[in-house]
Sequence to fold (188 residues):
Amino acid sequence: MGLRDILFGKKKLSEPKTDRLFALATAAVTLETELGLKTAGRAAIAFKPQSSGEFRSAFDDVDQLLEAVAAQGGSKIDRKSDDYGYDWIVVDDPDLEDLVASANTLSSELTAKGFGSQLLAAIFRFDGYEHPVYFIYGFKRGAWWPFIPSGESKRDNAKELELKSQLERELPIEQDLTRWLALFDAPV
Fold:
């Protein structure tokens, strides 16, 4: 976006940064052996749907592709909506690499069809602590952050910061803590 766009009020949403999504798969050994976190076999992608015919058509193509990927890898895929107007593609698969690959496939296809700016986040659930641990990937910034809900609209900030310090060498962690969205109602 240039100065002219800023002055005349034109807004162009940034395209997603999917290149760092696979960092979670490479961090899996550290997550499991050093931190005691094991994938719960669930992940999801959140995006803002559009009502345009082009979006529906593009998403039909993505649905077909995801079904093919799911059938090949043995994944189960479901679609949900939340109270905030976002749609979720939920993937169930015991293999973390398959979960990451499915998230990448969806984000890549939506981006190729011109709808990458609609992507919000990918979220992956892990078990091993008192509360579930989620690793969230923000597509706009291309960065990860931990999220640990510890009750009704509460989160374990201390444990999240501890995970941040333990994983900064493995994952591109979002450094601006104000951008660490809390996705309490994520369907994973």
Remarks:
- Residues 60 and 99 are 20 Å apart (CA to CA).
- The chain has a mean pLDDT of 85.
- The helical segments are 3-7, 23-26, 28-34, 53-73, 96-112, 157-167.
- Residues 13-179 form a domain with the Alpha-Beta Plaits fold (CATH 3.30.70).
